[in-house]
Amino acid sequence: MGRFKIETGDITTYSVDAIANAANGSLLGGGGVDGAIHRAAGPELLEECRGLGGCETGQAKITKGYGLPAGYVIHTPGPIWRGGAFGEAELLKNCYENCIRLAHEHGCKTVAFPSVSTGIYGYPLDQAARIAVKTIREGLEKYPDIEEIIMVCFSERVEKAYKKADNY
């Protein structure tokens, strides 16, 4: 039960094996958590990302953490909310599944996630939280070698939505 935590914080300060990045498809930085991660990691992250050729929505790619306390950054472009009839739920689920799989494949024991797609991409927070919590819990069952996943929320409002979803 204690393998999944939900808390408010700054994901760029977490000393975990990997942090997930709510990236855009270019992987070259942007606003929100993506920009914060790129700034905190330093220019080497951008350099490595340039060589990855971008990433499709719902997929994930992994890089070193560089100036971050995390060893790795797992970049995943989340879906832009377009009303829910364009496969957004499946794409968001894929973001979390693919990040957890990559964490497992790289021997990560601890992983921190931001709230993917709920910022500028406009995904409704309550729906996104339910998908994220369910998928993270399933990932912890599938990969028992992952010791802890932390949902790092950028505000108390977001934290409350995730805690509500975890008791859904």
Protein model, in words:
GO terms for molecular function: deacetylase activity. This is O-acetyl-ADP-ribose deacetylase. It comes from Blautia pseudococcoides. Pfam families: Macro. There is one protein chain. The chain has 168 residues and is an alpha/beta fold. The chain has one domain: Leucine Aminopeptidase, subunit E, domain 1. 39% of the residues lie in helices and 18% in strands. The protein has five helices and six strands. It has a six-stranded mixed beta sheet with strand order 1-6-5-2-4-3, with helices on both faces. Strand 3 and strand 4 form a beta hairpin. The protein is globular and about 40 Å long. It starts with a strand and ends with a helix. The model has no long low-confidence stretch (mean pLDDT 97).
Number of strands: 6
- The largest sheet has its strands arranged as 1-6-5-2-4-3
Structural class: alpha/beta
So, CATH architecture? 3-Layer(aba) Sandwich
Helix percentage: 25-40%
CATH topology (fold) name = Leucine Aminopeptidase, subunit E, domain 1
CATH fourth-tier homologous superfamily: Leucine Aminopeptidase, subunit E, domain 1
Overall radius of gyration = 14 Å
Low-confidence stretches: none
Shape: globular
The average pLDDT is: 97
Count up the domains.
Answer: 1
Proportion of beta-strand residues: 15-25%
CATH C-level class: Alpha Beta
Distance between the termini: 15 Å
